[in-house]
Design goal:
Length: about 375
C-alpha cells in the first residue's frame, strides 16, 4: 500500500476487447477512515461496469484461510467467490513467508504461497502474483522483515530474477505477474528522486527470466505510487486538476520505464485520492483524479492499465461516505480507460475499506457495505 512521501479506449485485462498459511511476519498496512454508505450517481455515461474493466482484490496478511473460525471462513469464502475473479498475492510478505530463506541454498519454502494459491483457486479466482518482496539476505539490512521496505541489492538482481522464474514455473496456473510493489526501496536520497534506472534493470532481468520458463506469462510494471499536492511548491508536473498536482518525479519514473523496459503486457500504478499535504477531494474530485491519471497513462502507452492499489479516504470534514468516494475512484479509473483495479485487503484488518469482517472468531466473515459496490464491477 502507498506510503506517502512528503519531500484511451477501454482495454480488457489482456489488451483485447474480451473480457497457507498466514505469514506470522507479514507487512503491515496503514489505515483510512470508513464511514456509513450512501448512494452516489455515476459521474459519466455508462454506469454499468464495462466488460473490459473489472475490480479484483489483493490478499494481505489475513484472509479467508483455513485457520480462522470455521463458519467465519466459510462465509468469507462465499463472499470472495462472488467478486473478482482476479485475486493477487505477493511472492513474499502480505501473507506469504520467505520462499528462499538461506543464501547459497537450494532449499525453498513454498508452503504459505501454495496455500494462498489454493485459496484463490478454491474460490474460483484467477490468480495474480506480485513479485515482491525480497529475502533478507538480498537486501541491505539482511533482514526478512525490516522496519522499512527494501529492494534487493544490485548484486542480487540475478538471484531475485531466478526466484521469480522459479515461482512462475511452480505455478503455471498464474497468468499475470506484477513486478515489485510501489518502487519500495528504490528511492535515491542523493538525487531526491526514484532510482528508476535500478528498478528497470531489475524489471528487465525478471522479465527475461520469467519469459524463459513461461513464455505465456503476462508481466507488468512499474507499479509506481503516484504522489500529489494541493499546493505544489517543487517537482510539480503538468498533470493537475481540482484534486491537486501530481509529483513530476513519479511521472518521470513511469516514462523512463516505458522507454526502457524490455517488454510488458500491462502497466501498473497506484495512488490515493488525498494529497500528501492533506487535501481530501470530494467525490467529484476523486473521480476526476483517477480518470485524469489513467488518461495520462493511456495517452503514452497502449498497454492495459492496472490500478494495483487505490485509496479514497474520507476526511472528518467530508460529508461523502467512503463507499461513495470508492465508487467515484472506480468509475474514474474505468472511464479513463483502465482494465483492472485491485482492492487492497478484502478481509478487514484496520479501518481500510474491506469486504468481510475478520474471520479469527465466531461471527466473523460477514459482508461489509462495500460488497455490493465491488460485485457491481466484478467480471464474474
Amino acid at each position: 500500500m502507498t506510503l506517502h512521501r512528503v519531500s484511451g479506449s477501454k482495454r480488457s485485462v489482456d489488451g483485447s476487447r474480451r473480457r497457507g498459511r498466514r505469514a506470522m511476519l507479514g507487512l503491515a498496512g496503514a489505515s483510512i477512515l470508513a464511514v456509513a454508505a450512501v448512494t452516489v450517481p455515476a459521474y459519466a455515461d455508462g454506469a454499468d461496469a464495462d466488460a473490459a474493466f473489472q475490480v479484483g482484490v489483493t490478499h494481505e496478511r489475513y484472509s479467508a484461510d483455513w485457520w480462522g473460525e470455521e463458519q467465519a471462513v466459510a462465509d468469507a469464502r462465499e463472499i470472495l467467490s462472488s467478486v473478482g475473479p482476479l485475486q493477487n498475492q505477493h511472492l513474499m510478505g502480505f501473507g506469504a513467508e520467505n520462499p528462499w530463506p538461506a543464501a547459497n541454498s537450494s532449499a525453498r519454502d513454498w508452503g504459505s504461497l501454495d496455500e494462498r494459491i489454493e485459496l484463490i483457486e478454491a474460490t474460483g479466482g484467477t490468480p495474480v502474483v506480485t513479485l515482491c518482496c525480497a529475502p533478507g539476505w538480498m537486501t541491505p539490512s539482511g533482514e526478512d522483515w525490516p522496519d522499512a521496505y527494501e529492494a534487493p541489492q544490485p548484486q542480487f538482481y540475478d538471484e531475485y530474477a531466478q526466484l521469480s522464474a522459479e515461482a512462475a514455473a511452480r505455478y503455471p496456473q498464474v497468468e499475470y505477474f506484477q513486478v515489485w510493489n510501489e518502487f519500495k526501496g528504490f528511492w535515491n536520497e542523493d538525487l531526491n528522486r526514484w532510482d528508476h534506472e535500478g528498478y528497470t534493470e531489475l524489471y528487465n532481468l525478471v522479465y527475461a527470466a520469467v519469459k524463459e520458463v513461461r513464455p505465456d506469462a503476462k508481466i507488468g510494471g512499474p507499479y509506481v505510487s503516484l504522489n500529489s499536492f494541493q499546493d505544489c511548491a517543487h517537482d510539480c508536473s503538468d498533470l493537475e486538476g481540482s484534486w491537486g498536482t501530481a509529483d513530476r518525479r513519479d511521472l518521470d519514473a513511469m516514462e523512463y520505464w516505458l522507454a526502457n523496459a524490455d517488454g510488458a503486457e500491462f502497466f501498473t500504478v497506484d495512488a490515493w485520492s488525498s494529497t500528501n499535504d492533506g487535501y481530501h477531494p470530494a467525490a467529484a474530485g476523486v473521480y476526476e483524479k483517477f480518470r485524469d491519471v489513467t488518461e495520462w497513462i493511456t495517452a503514452r502507452t497502449d498497454l492495459p492499465v492496472w490500478w494495483s492499489e487505490f485509496y479514497a479516504p474520507a476526511s472528518s470534514a467530508d460529508e461523502s461516505s467512503s463507499v461513495a468516494l470508492m465508487r467515484a475512484a472506480i468509475e474514474g479509473m474505468r472511464d479513463g480507460g483502465a482494465a483492472v483495479a485491485l482492492l487492497w485487503s478484502p478481509e478487514c484488518q484496520s479501518e481500510l475499506p474491506c469486504l468481510w469482517t475478520a474471520t479469527g472468531a465466531a461471527g466473523g466473515g460477514q459482508a461489509t457495505e462495500y460488497v455490493p459496490l465491488i460485485r457491481e464491477f466484478s467480471a464474474r
